[in-house]
Design a protein that fits this description.
The protein is mainly α. 77% of the residues lie in helices and 0% in strands.
Length: 148
């Protein structure tokens, strides 16, 4: 049964990537569905989340929603937030959530450096959707945690 919720979550990430690439907009309903699927994964899993995990998760989501929207956009903050809930369901903690952010930026920097799209001061010359990099980093971390 949990596989169905992972599938719903994955479909939401794919849909968000497509809409971000096409129109640079992501519908809020995408995050509601992804968040609900991730919450079911977290609460319905084998391990029950303890108070520390919930505190770390809540703090990370609050940080995303209050500090980072001006840096990289609200949809990206929602993506990091719902991914953090899914990562918590997979056994990650606060370190894993921040590792996901760092890996996303590294993927973005690598690809945009190859495309010569980074100007002086590290800013992108042409804006690009960030959600594909967030999604790639999420699945890479999950794959790595399962294989190691």
């Amino acid at each position: 049964m949990m596989g169905a919720f992972w599938g719903i979550f994955a479909a939401c990430l794919v849909f968000a990537c497509i809409t971000d690439c096409r129109s640079r907009e992501v519908y809020n309903i995408t995050w509601w569905v992804a968040g609900a699927a991730a919450a079911v994964l977290l609460l319905g899993g084998r391990r029950r989340p303890d108070g520390i995990l919930l505190l770390e998760l809540g703090g990370f989501i609050l940080l995303q929603l209050k500090l980072f929207p001006k840096m990289y956009g609200r949809a990206d903050c929602y993506a990091f937030s719902v991914c953090a809930v899914a990562e918590a369901a997979a056994g990650f903690s606060l370190t894993g959530y921040f590792l996901h952010m760092v890996l996303s930026f590294l993927f973005l920097a690598f690809v945009q450096a190859l495309r010569h799209n980074i100007g002086s001061g590290g800013k992108l010359l042409r804006p690009v959707p960030f959600l594909p990099y967030i999604t790639l980093a999420f699945w890479s971390l999950l794959w790595y945690s399962v294989t190691v």
